[in-house]
Amino acid sequence: MTVTETEPISPARDGLCEFPGVNCPNPKVQDAGASGRPPKYCGLEGPGVDGKLVIHNKATAWSAKKAAERRPVRAAGGAGSVPPLPAGPVTTARTTLENQMLELPRRLDQLQEFLTGITAAVRAYGDAEAVAAEVEQLQASSRAQVAEVERQRGEEEHRRRQAEQLAADAEDAREEADAAAQDAFEELESARAEALAALTAAEKARQDAVSARESAAAEVEQAHQEMQAAQEAATAQAEELRLDTERRIAEIQSAAELQIQQARTEVEVARIAQATAESERQTAQQTADQLRTELRELRDQHRAELESLRAEHRADRDQLRTDHQAQLADIRQAAADRVAAATMAQRAAEQSAETLRDQLTATQAAQAAPTIEEAETA
């Protein structure tokens, strides 16, 4: 076992963080009722075995234990192993003070936040504007409640007036109902008298109806006899009409047969005429085919003659073009010869003119020489 594991926990540190190698003043993390071993560390940031700040939890505690186990081995590499001295109360107090001084900034920040919240609450409680706004809000709410009460009171007054109006209307309706009942009673009496008169009239009408029924029975019997006589007459008339109809049907059938015979004759004549027309049509078709063949032959003959004429015309045109080109070449050659002759004549004329010009110059010089000599002599 290591020294850290064998160190007993003092009663004064019961409930505090058990991070190895240091005396952490923070309490352990509260157990939330989870299964397993209860927490032994605070879970806050604090000094480690090497003096650096670490989070006090299971992982860093395991690393701290391993570092504490390696420390005696490193010390054994020196002159010899020295047993650690027990920590006195001053050392413990100094370590506790150092830990508390390390925790002091965090606690001061928490205190600052707490005091800031208290200051804000006090400021809000003593703020005159907030009080005035709240009073104004309460007054507005009171006015709204008063307005609501006034509105409800007005509605109650309106309902009361409506009830009074309904009561007055009901009274008027009751009076009208009484008057209507009186009128109905009077009308009932009048209707009763009229009903008695109607019963009397109905009895008289019944008696008249009995008399009328007896008279009607006699009339019905007479009508039956007349109907039977009319039926017999109608039967005789129908028989006569049937005979007349059969006679007319026979006449119509005879006329129809005659017309059918005539129609058959006309159809036969038409068929013969159609056959004749068909024969004539075939003859005309043959004639037309023959004429079409002759026309086609004439067209081919004319086309051949036209092609021959075109070939002859093309040959004549080519010959004329050749002759024209030859004549044009001759004319061009003659023109070129004439131009060459004219050019040669022009050159000869120019040479003659140059010769004459030289001779004239020489003659003028010869004539002018004696004159110059005479002038010099003089």
Automatic annotation (TrEMBL):
Bias (Low complexity): 347-372
Start-end of Basic and acidic residues biased regions: 148-163
Domain of life: Bacteria
Region (Disordered): 65-90, 146-182, 210-238, 347-378
Protein's name in the database: Chromosome segregation ATPase
Naturally occurring in which organism (per UniProt): Kribbella albertanoniae
